[in-house]
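Assemble and predict.
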Amino acid sequence: MPLKMGVATVTMNRPPVNSLNTEHLETLHRTFIRLENEKCRGMILTSSSPTVFSAGLDIREMYKPELEKARKFWRTLQDMWLKLYSSPYPTVAAINGHAPAGGCLLSLSCEYRVIVPKVRMGLNETQLGIVAPQWFQDCMRNAIGEREAEKALIAGRMFSSEEALKVGLVDEIAQNKEECIQKAEAFLASQANLPMLARKTVKLGFRHQTLSRLLTGREADTKIFIDYIFQPKVQKGLEMYLQSLSKKAA
Ligand SMILES: CC/C=C\C/C=C\C/C=C\CC/C=C/CC(=O)SCCNC(=O)CCNC(=O)[C@H](O)C(C)(C)COP(=O)(O)OP(=O)(O)OC[C@H]1O[C@@H](n2cnc3c(N)ncnc32)[C@H](O)[C@@H]1OP(=O)(O)O
């Protein structure tokens, strides 16, 4: 996590696809706490993979899990997201590859998004027979508005880079990762002279409702997740999806 002029670049590096397991989520959570403690001036979130930003939650954490491990997994995801979404420093996602589901959530939790061409992003949960939790949905709604979010979430739509720009899911398209980082740095530079306290107060004002909804209902949210994924038909769906992903690799 290099810090240049107080700006940190956090590069996710969990090959092959930066899927988010408990350990990776803990690492991200610790990183966001550290950046806050070190009074970081801005953060760029990106990936070391040339083709994938993040494949979202690690499906193996949800397939035939032990109950306590599944609970810990979900609570760690909540912790990581609460820290990122409420960060006092400005945040940019440099989306240098595909960003389905939880990968899309990570980028939606940043304040500004730059994407490279020819990749896909979106909350595709419906297509997998699972449901994007309320706070995932809220993040999408906050980015693209009620009507477009409803359509996208019901269909589990994956947007191309160009479609993402058109609907407002991302702010800019860059030609490659290098330009993506340059544009991310330019956004952070544009924020640098704003009074930090006023800036973060306005940001939290906009995000307060979405944050409170999870903060006041964390246990209920965890229970919904557990009850949902332990259903036999959901487990069967996850099994088939995992098989289809590894067949593709074979
Ligand atoms: C109102 C609310 C009410 C109720 C809510 C109720 C309940 C909530 C319950 C559940 C919610 C759960 C939320 C989940 C959110 C998620 O994030 S689910 C994850 C969704 N992710 C995906 O669908 C992405 C799947 N992956 C891909 O599409 C491709 O892998 C990708 C385009 C990212 C990259 O393609 P490519 O480079 O070709 O790589 P491969 O497909 O060949 O994959 C390489 C290996 O990686 C494995 N893999 C891929 N993705 C995942 C993953 N997400 N988890 C685990 N493993 C993954 C893949 O199997 C390959 O492995 P192998 O090499 O075969 O061992």
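The mean pLDDT is 96.
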